[in-house]
Amino acid sequence: MPIDVAAAVTTNHRLSTNYNVLALAAPDIAAAAAPGQFVMIKPRRGHDPLLRRPFSVFEVLRDRDGAPTGISLLNKWIGVSTGLVYGAQPGQLVDCFGPLGRPFSLVERPTEAWMVAGGVGLAPFAQLAEILCAKGVASVLFYGARRAEELFYLDYFRRLGVELVLTTEDGSLGERGRNVAPLERRLAAWPSNAPVMVYACGPEGMLAATAKTAARHGRPCQVSVERIMGCGLGGCYSCVVPMRTDEGRCHHVRSCLAGPVLSGDQIVWEEHGS
Ligand SMILES: Cc1cc2nc3c(=O)[nH]c(=O)nc-3n(C[C@H](O)[C@H](O)[C@H](O)COP(=O)(O)OP(=O)(O)OC[C@H]3O[C@@H](n4cnc5c(N)ncnc54)[C@H](O)[C@@H]3O)c2cc1C
Ligand code: FES
To answer: Whose CA is nearest to atom 48 of ligand 1?
Structure first.
């Protein structure tokens, strides 16, 4: 069951002029959160902004004994609420409701986990990688951004034992271009009898390209879609995603309930391009 708490900000770590990691004291949400789930956040009391905003659970924070104490959010400032999250002060209370939505399905060894993250789409992969690496699942992160300064938490993933494949659009770190290119190459070279699960989170075009690439190589792909979410609870239909049924019919699902993690090969991507 999701929990609604007024969570105190414990730290606000600025990563750049528009990215930060906000830590919230929310032990019950932390204890219940599965990788890929999200919380609905209202960083300021009152009517502006009126609605909460969705954020992936980035890290589950723990005390020395391993007990969950809170969660962190990886935030990219693009508007009113994300600006308030960027500017939040320690001690400030943030309304936080969650965890919500359908999480990623976890794989077991010997299946490998290949995570594809674009920009702030890195957010759900910190917790996913932590859990998969603890289970001994070999994990690769194909992580792309516009430039080197926008690739964050690399040491975090290295410490877990995740192999990093980095791309930047300007070539300032890793391969120049988009992260789907090295994914495609590795899928093409991978033995067909070696199981792989592709996980993706990022801009819609990257998700579509990743899902289509995985499908072309006959690999399963779970994508975390990002829609504008008014309620996070199935009431407003602001978050619908067109999906194809097994019989080939198109229908719409509310991504706050059926997702945000959906099967990449069932989403009707044509409407969003690739
Ligand atoms: C399941 C889920 C998980 C998310 N996780 C994260 C996360 O971990 N970190 C993070 O920084 N962001 C995340 N987002 C995106 C985040 O919710 C939006 O950036 C936020 O709602 C914008 O709020 P705002 O008040 O700052 O922007 P607003 O002032 O409301 O809008 C500013 C501009 O951004 C556009 N916009 C608003 N929301 C979106 C959106 N979802 N996609 C595209 N354009 C949008 C608006 O149309 C407007 O043009 C997630 C979204 C979803 C659905
Ligand atoms: S966000 Fe309201 S129905 Fe999904």
So the answer is: 79
Judge whether 221 and 233 are in contact, CB under 8 Å: no
- Tell which one of 41, 51, 225, 238 to mutate to probe ligand 2, the residue whose CB is within 8 A of the most ligand atoms: 238
Q: Crossing angle for the helix pair 180-189 and 204-216, nearest 10 degrees? A: 10
User: Are 269 and 216 spatial neighbours (Cβ–Cβ below 8 Å)?
Assistant: no
Q: Which amino acid would we find at residue 88?
A: A
Cα of 78 vs centre of ligand 1, distance in Å, is: 7
Instruction: Read off the pLDDT of each residue in 137-148 and give the average, rounded to a whole number.
Output: 97
Q: pTM of the entire structure?
A: 0.95
pLDDT at 273: 44
Nearest-CA residue for ligand 2 atom 3 is 234
Q: How far is the CA of 129 from the centre of ligand 2 (A)?
A: 27
Using omega within 30 degrees of 0 as the cis cutoff, is the peptide bond preceding 49 cis? yes
pLDDT at 270 over 80: no
The pLDDT of residue 271 is: 55
